Structures are given as C-alpha cells and as structure tokens.
Amino acid sequence: MNSIDSFLKRFEHFGVELGLERIYQLLDNLGNPHLQVPIIHVAGTNGKGSVCAYLSSILKTAGYKVGRYTSPHLVDWTERICLNEEKISSTILEQLLQEVEAAIQPEQPSPTLFEVITAAAWLYFAQQEVDVAVVEVGLGGRLDATNVCHQPMVTVITSISWEHWQRLGPTLSHIAGEKAGILKPRCPAIVGVLPPEAKIVVEKRITELECPVVWVEPAELLEGSRENNSLPVANYQGIEYKVPLFGDVQLSNSAIAIATVQVLETQGWEVSTAAIKQGIAETKWPGRLQWTTWQNRKLLIDGAHNTAAAQVLGRYVRTLNYPSISWVMGMLSTKEHSEIFRALLRPGDRLYLVPVPGHSSADLKQLRIIAEDICTELELCQIYSHLTAALKKAMTDSENLIVLCGSLYLLVDILPVF
C-alpha cells in the first residue's frame, strides 16, 4: 500500500481544485472509459456514502455486476473502488494508476490527486464491464471530477446542509446550486428531505431540466422492532426491511436507496423485493456510528465531521441513556467547531481533544476554549498529542461510554487494530 501512497503523493501538491477540464482531457486520453459505464450519481452533504453502500448491496444481491466509487477512504485507497462489495486489490490499483499516469500528456495541465484516482475508477469499471457503477460525488457536484457523465440512469441528492463553504459558497442556496449541478436534462432525480432554502434551488433546477423527480420522505420505524437487540425494522411504501446501520438518518438514507431502485425498475432493471430487503440488511458502512471494542472496552466511532452529522450522532447517543459521555475528538481547521460541540456536549461529559494526523488540524487550545464556553459544566476538558494516549486516559478515568469522533481521518490510525 505504501507504493500507492507514494505514487499518489506526487499529485498532492496540485491540491483540491474544482473544475472539469483536466478530468475530461485525462479521460479522453484514456479512451473515455466513463462513457462505457452506466452510472447512478450520488451527491449530498451527508448520507451519500450510506446510500451508495445500500444501492451497491441491493443491486449485487439482485444479480448485477456493480462497481462502487466512494471517498474518502478510512484505512487505504483500495476501499474507494469496489466491485460487488469487494475492494480492488492493491496490485490492480497500482496497474491502473500507472495506466492513468501514462495517459497524462506533459503539455497538458497536471490532474489533481482526486482526478487521478477517479480516472482509475472509471478505467477499472470499464475494463470489468460492470452493469452499473454507483458513484459518490467527492466535493460539491457541479465541478466535481465525477460529474462527467451526461446521461446517468439516476441522480441522487441525499441531503444539503452547511459544509465546505470555503469552496461551495457562503449560503445554503450556493451549496444547493453546486449539488444540483449533477442533475441532467430529463434524467430522473431522487431527492431527500432538504431545508427550504436549499429545496427552492434544487426544485428550480429540476424544473429547468425537466427531470422526473421523487421527493423522498423517510421510512417509518415500526414500533417494537428493536426488541431482543434485533435490528430495527422500517417500512417504505409497503416494503418492510431490517436496517443494519445506526442512527435515525438511516430511515431517510435507506428510503432514498429504495426509491432509486424503483426508478431503475421502470427502466427495465429487475430487482425483487426480496433483493431489496436482503441487500439492505447486509449493507456495511464502517466508521459511521460503528460499535467496536478497543483494548477490551466498548467504543462507538463516527466521523461526525460536520454539524448535521454531529446532530445525528448526538441524537443517537442520547437514545442510549448513558448518564454522561467521554468524547475523544479531533477536528480539521475548516470545520464548524462551535456547532459540532453544541450538537454533542452536555453537562457532566468529559472531552479529550486530539490532533487529526496528517491533515490541517484545528488548534487544540482554541478548541478547548470554544468547548468550555459552549458547555460550561463539562466535568473535564483535556488536550492530548496523540489519539492512543487520549483513549487510554478516557478508559481509566471513568466507566462512561467512550465516543471517538470529529473527523473520518481521525479513525485511520485506530481502525486497523480493531
């Protein structure tokens, strides 16, 4: 895996630069593999990864050959590119990256790291002749490197909330405009519940493009379905199914996946109700509201890297009825720290702040000031230079539930040892 890391590191200094000119040129040099792959294109602030996971599991269960491209990865690059729920081998990924590099013309602008790995995904799916690729937008939508297909089978917008305002714009309307950039003329659109300000923008674009649209309401949680530690059961349009991923937001995400599959059925795809139920029940999406153990102690981990995700985490944790929580948290400098703390911290909680390795980590002293100002009755708020030290201290300090959260990147060092 180190060879893939070192290969891609060469493209890191080009940074994150939205725009489609470089990726179109690169794909053209590769023979336009993206035009050979039927796709479902999924955008959204939160939920898009879960929706991609549900969709690929359902369609694989229905007997289709399914590619899945998501980002970021938790442990290594191979997680981003999957075929029938199996991540690509590092050997094959290295070969694909070499093919992509060979297609870069010296007189043309160099692609970014994300464009290189995205091109490798398109190349892999075309070579494997997948029936469908479920493709997650990396950032925004309109100018994202995945937004190169003029005729997706379905486009999906899972949710819209405040994120990446530095690149997507200062208001929800601006952010919604960027997400709506994946919509295509007369291509079916599946849209989750949106804030009014965002819905106006998306609805206007849908009207302009004459997209058939399904506005998806969350599935209904069936009462009494959580007994005996069994998975909760939900109902969406008469389909009753077990929900394997935690958090109330999964009632929305799973419903969006079902609505997307139902649109595919109108296009001639054969997906039985049994395949939908089994596909959802078998879905895995690590690092999001995931229970695990670390050094024989129960631990809840979740990326929770923006306000909306933190609110989902906060609601879930409060259903568990622990008297107080020990939060082990690290955040990037670009995140809305105050709002994330407001969503999570309660009187009596303990907070252990850590840096996010290898990324633009927020100033920990400043985070402590913000946290203590927002929740004046924290039992403890301490800074640690390393995640492992913070986790060990949290475990010896109390019998609280320990929650590790604040950034998906924070989970990288800890996940391999689970």
Supply the CATH class of the largest domain: Alpha Beta
Largest sheet: 8 strands, mixed
Number of domains: 2
Q: If you consult CATH, what is the topology of the largest domain?
A: UDP-N-acetylmuramoyl-L-alanine:D-glutamate ligase
Count every helix, treating DSSP H or I runs of 4 or more residues as helices. 14
CATH architecture name of the largest domain: 3-Layer(aba) Sandwich
Mean pLDDT: 92
Shape: globular
Helix share, percent: 25-40%
Widest β-sheet, arrangement of strands: 4-3-2-5-1-6-7-8
- Enumerate the spans where pLDDT stays under 50 for 5 or more consecutive residues: none
Q: For this structure, what is the CATH homologous superfamily of the largest domain?
A: Mur-like, catalytic domain
The beta-strand count equals 17
Structural class, from helix and strand content? alpha/beta
Q: Distance between the terminal alpha carbons, to the nearest Å? A: 19 Å
What fraction of the residues are assigned to beta strands by DSSP? 15-25%
Whole-angstrom Rg: 21 Å
